[in-house]
Amino acid sequence: MAEKAIITRVHTSPLALDAAEWNALLAQQGHVTPFMRHEYLAALHTSDSAVPATGWHARYLTLEQEGRLVAACPLYLKEHSYGEYIFDWAWARAYQEHGLHYYPKALIAVPFTPVPGTRLLARDEFARTALLRAAVAWCKEQSLSSLHLLFGSDEDMAASRNVGLMQRTTVQFHWNNRAPDGGKFRDFEHFLGALTQDKRKKIRQEQRRVRDAGVRFRWARSTDIAVADWEFFYRCYERTYLEHGNPPYLSRTFFERMAQDMPDAWLLFIAERGGQAIATSLIAINADPSSAGGQNVLNFPSPTAYGRYWGALERVDSLHFDACYYQPLAWCIAHGLGAFEGGAQGEHKMARALMPVATHSAHWLAHPAFADAVERFLEREDAGMAAYVEELRAHTPFRTATRPAPNP
């Protein structure tokens, strides 16, 4: 019997998709993060954070067979390149200089979220490749300049090669909870003991400065994060953006939705001095939601924490490093999490024992001459990036004799 036809659909809102069906498909993937949950993507839309008014036009793509979802991805038409963290401004400028329009372009990504993970949800390899082929075909039909898949998984990159997309490599800095003996660190002091003397001394000095300033930390997770704590967090988050001359990407309503719809994904650190809160950092977690009192909708294979947002109302020397790195790392060790991802960019993170890892994106450009030029550029960039990563790794913060065991 012939296999039933696969139907391609384009949706102008994530709300048009069934949340349970989306999350069930997500649970089948190899690299699951909380940022691909339907609740997260829907909150970006309903909070007016990633909507046409901000330059994000949802065009979620799905493949259906016999009424069942077999593949799906978050796809957006973009009028700019803000909030992506894979920089193609030079490509856009080159298009403009030749009298061509680079925008709108198409983007398969989670808005404002530079976290590696599955972007092409699919029941199998065939469906994943078919989904990406459908995305390219749709871009051609819409006469778009390009399609970009950002921070994809290994499976996404394999599908991209099958379809003929160009590959690009960038670098992030991640921490792994692996002690020199191959097990996990027992506590924060055990972790510090694995570092070189200068790095260990620097971290202790920075934490001492924070303590000597009278600052103490408390943390709350999931539904234990009070409404007042969420409110204080947003004050800090918003102020940090405004101090840099920009409004925040994410609205207050977005975080209200996070507190309501997926509280299990969040861990909040609050710095206090003299009984008053002065700074905060918000960490995402993909550990089993049931352990935080939530519903276990996904089977996360490797409990990981993600550094996401930070803000302060007062300036204290080294407070940012303590709130965003040392307190989360100590928490991860105490609670047995396997990794902490520090977000986009930042060589300074190596001094805090976050090591360089390659992240990947894939690109299709409609204009043949520009595609050829970009492909040549990416070949040179990739060679330079490989050398850059090797150079970074040569300056490891870990003592050579006690360097953590490599990934299995």
UniProtKB/TrEMBL annotation:
<dbReference type="Pfam" id="PF04339">
    <property type="entry name" value="FemAB_like"/>
</dbReference>
<dbReference type="GO" id="GO:0016740">
    <property type="term" value="F:transferase activity"/>
</dbReference>
<dbReference type="InterPro" id="IPR007434">
    <property type="entry name" value="FemAB-like"/>
</dbReference>
<dbReference type="InterPro" id="IPR016181">
    <property type="entry name" value="Acyl_CoA_acyltransferase"/>
</dbReference>
<keyword id="KW-0808">Transferase</keyword>
<protein>
    <submittedName>
        <fullName>GNAT family N-acetyltransferase</fullName>
    </submittedName>
</protein>
